[in-house]
């Protein structure tokens, strides 16, 4: 993949860290930000359209393991809810063997989202290590518009500080979505962590698309399995923070109900951010059905888990079976929130209805 660098823009580093200003005499220089080397730049590199590749899910290899949860043998695991989410302490992700990474992929697929606490060893190893970690789970995706560490385009960064503007034109900052669902091969297992965070706020919500489907009536489930939906990445490129567009957006048709390639579980696969219409329906029909499903996802608190961030935490989730939303409720704190995401792509979504053809 070739690229030509034309422009690089770097976000300003402010004096705020973890929500409080460092009180020192005016003549004293600001304390250097520990992760300044991971500040976002906005390169104008251009990339060609993504091409299809054969994906073998890491979790599939763990199915043959006599104890596919052995990497958690010495850990303290707390289930956040009965059907979604686990909170784990006592595992160093940076030192996992390839076999243990396969087990990890299977565990995340089964639980939907898992947060690992105390991961400073991993976080301090830097962007090169993050990239190699992600490649174990699939081909890495480059965000078409966001910032990334200098020289590491595969690491997607989110960044806000005291100088950032919080734009919210709606009643809430909650936007349920599955990352890049408009791609032909959207992400599977995804890793995200914060390098700096406000003292409170900035939590992340997750919703089980397996449970969102399962609680619908059998009649509705059967109907949804017959449907396809158009997912679009065009709208997300119309306003770009760094003023760059590295790859043109696309629109892709996916099944409304997909099947996980390893667990076999079926999951609802629509989201308000990227899904635009139901294929074959009149506009009013499509909007009626999609709005019903979006409302169902948003209101089903019994299918949701809320991750409260602690320093040096890492969250891994399976984009195929969960939806998520960031919560931007900390603007008044004037604090820095600096996060990094590693985004391996997975297979083209597998229809739950075996007879469905996805050639169109």
From TrEMBL:
Superkingdom classification of source: Eukaryota
Alphabetical list of Gene3D superfamilies matching this protein: Clavaminate synthase-like (3.60.130.10)
Specify the TauD/TfdA-like domain's residue ranges: 78-342
Task: Output the Gene Ontology terms for molecular function.
Answer: 2-oxoglutarate-dependent dioxygenase activity; metal ion binding
Q: Which UniProt keywords apply?
A: Dioxygenase, Iron, Metal-binding, Oxidoreductase
- A Pfam family annotated for this chain is TauD
Instruction: Report one GO cellular component.
Output: cytoplasm
Q: Report the sequence similarity comment from the record.
A: Belongs to the TfdA dioxygenase family.
Record's protein name: TauD-domain-containing protein
Q: Which organism is it from?
A: Mycena metata
């Amino acid at each position: 993949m070739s690229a030509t660098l034309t422009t690089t823009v770097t976000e300003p580093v402010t004096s705020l860290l973890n929500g409080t200003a460092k009180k020192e005499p005016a003549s004293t220089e600001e304390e250097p930000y520990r992760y300044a080397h991971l500040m976002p730049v906005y390169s104008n590199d251009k990339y060609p359209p993504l091409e299809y590749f054969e994906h073998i899910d890491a979790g599939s290899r763990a199915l043959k393991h006599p104890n596919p949860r052995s990497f958690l043998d010495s850990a303290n695991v707390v289930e956040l809810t009965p059907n979604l989410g686990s909170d784990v302490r006592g595992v160093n992700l940076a030192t996992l063997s390839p076999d243990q990474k396969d087990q990890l992929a299977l565990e995340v697929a089964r639980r939907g989202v898992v947060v690992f606490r105390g991961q400073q060893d991993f976080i301090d190893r830097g962007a090169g290590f993050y990239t190699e970690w992600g490649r174990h789970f699939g081909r890495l995706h480059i965000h078409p518009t966001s910032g990334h560490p200098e020289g590491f385009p595969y690491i997607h960064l989110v960044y806000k500080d005291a100088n950032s503007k919080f734009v919210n034109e709606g009643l809430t900052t909650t936007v349920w979505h599955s990352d890049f669902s408009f791609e032909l091969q959207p992400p599977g297992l995804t890793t995200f962590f914060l390098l700096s965070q406000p003292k409170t706020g900035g939590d992340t919500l997750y919703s089980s698309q397996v449970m969102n489907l399962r609680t619908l009536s059998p009649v509705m489930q059967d109907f949804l399995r017959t449907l396809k939906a158009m997912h679009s990445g065009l709208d997300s490129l119309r306003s770009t923070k760094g003023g760059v567009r590295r790859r043109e957006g696309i629109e892709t048709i996916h099944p409304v109900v997909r099947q996980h390639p390893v667990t076999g579980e079926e999951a609802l696969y629509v989201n308000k951010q990227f899904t635009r219409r139901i294929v074959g329906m009149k506009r009013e029909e499509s909007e009626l059905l999609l709005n019903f499903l979006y409302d169902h996802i948003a209101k089903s608190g019994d299918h949701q888990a809320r991750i409260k961030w602690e320093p040096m935490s890492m969250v891994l989730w399976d984009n195929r079976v969960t939806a998520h939303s960031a919560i931007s409720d900390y603007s008044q704190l004037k604090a820095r929130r600096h996060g990094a995401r590693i985004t391996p792509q997975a297979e083209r979504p597998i229809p739950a209805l075996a007879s469905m053809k996805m050639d169109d």
